[in-house]
């Protein structure tokens, strides 16, 4: 969940790219754009970064 995404974001950039398929910088920009332009919001139990991380991973 959110701890997994936070761990990846705090960890080594190569591991992040291997798991998510993009760089940390690109992930952050994509998350921001999805919130601004796409209206993506934290749900009651799942943060935006977690939603995006799950989508990209699977």
TrEMBL record:
<dbReference type="InterPro" id="IPR058353">
    <property type="entry name" value="DUF8040"/>
</dbReference>
<feature type="domain" description="DUF8040">
    <location>
        <begin position="1"/>
        <end position="57"/>
    </location>
</feature>
<dbReference type="Pfam" id="PF26138">
    <property type="entry name" value="DUF8040"/>
</dbReference>
<protein>
    <recommendedName>
        <fullName>DUF8040 domain-containing protein</fullName>
    </recommendedName>
</protein>
